[in-house]
Write a structure and sequence with these properties.
InterPro entries: cDENN_dom, dDENN_dom, DENN_C, DENN_domain_containing_2, Tripartite_DENN. The chain is mainly α and 225 residues long. Helices cover 40% and strands 8% of the residues. The protein has two domains: 63 residues, 3-Layer(aba) Sandwich (Rossmann fold); 128 residues, no CATH class. The strands form three sheets. The chain has a two-stranded parallel ribbon with strand order 1-2. Strands 3-4 form a two-stranded antiparallel sheet. It has a two-stranded antiparallel ribbon with strand order 5-6.
Length: 225
């Protein structure tokens, strides 16, 4: 989960495996991302949980939901992301049959790359145009023109999402890191963001999932590494 939210960084409590003796932490009113062993589930069910989403990773199912999961993300982008993830095994198979010079590292695999690219492109559709709205001040300090950044998106649902998302520590950390840099970042996200901007007519940021859908084109972009 921490990996798939790249280029963002989880800003709150993060405990990969919580010892049973400390399980009361899940009653904390602050945001957290916590892993539990299956043996701790009986203890969890006895606690007065509030807004906590519980996922059984072993059996691939929700144990507890908030019933707002389908209303948080821009609908078209959510559907496009879900569609890609449903095809992840087929897309990974297509990529694995690519050119022989497309080699994977020891911690990489076609499936990992498909899932990683899907989320990167998803976030590119949402905030990939940020670099166009970073302006330099007198001391070479860069500042995001927040309102112009949000209004540059034509999709109403995406603008509404950005209005909320831009107030989170996750987004603030993402932008602050880039405002403080003297040079533009050169990571995978920035590479994909530049590709995304080059596909758009000048001044338009549609956010209608065309770039994300392009992931299904037999993963050709991965073969260009």
């Amino acid at each position: 989960m921490v990996a798939v939210i790249y280029p963002f960084t989880w800003q709150h409590t993060y405990i990969p495996v919580l010892p049973p003796a400390m399980i009361d932490i899940v009653c904390s009113p602050t945001p957290f991302l916590i892993g539990l062993l299956t043996s701790s589930l009986p203890l969890l069910r006895e606690l007065p949980l509030e807004e906590v989403l519980v996922v059984d990773l072993v059996n691939n199912r929700f144990l507890r939901q908030m019933d707002d999961e389908d209303s948080i993300l821009p609908r078209k982008l959510q559907v496009a992301l879900e569609h890609i993830l449903e095809q992840r095994n087929d897309l990974a198979s297509d990529q694995d049959e690519g050119p022989p010079d497309c080699k994977h590292g020891p911690e990489s695999s076609p499936l990992n790359e498909v899932v990683s690219e899907a989320f990167v492109r998803f976030f590119v559709e949402i905030v990939g145009h940020y670099s166009l709205f970073l302006t330099a001040g007198e001391r070479e300090e860069r500042t995001l023109q927040r309102e112009a950044f949000r209004k540059a998106v034509s999709s109403k649902s995406l603008r509404r999402f950005l209005e909320v998302f831009m107030e989170t520590q996750t987004f603030r950390g993402f932008i602050q890191e880039r405002e403080l840099r003297r040079q533009d970042a050169k990571g995978l996200f920035e590479v994909r963001a530049q590709e995304y901007l080059e596909t758009l007519p000048s001044g338009e940021h549609s956010g209608v999932n065309k770039f994300l859908k392009g992931l299904g084109n037999k993963m050709k972009f991965l073969h260009k590494k």
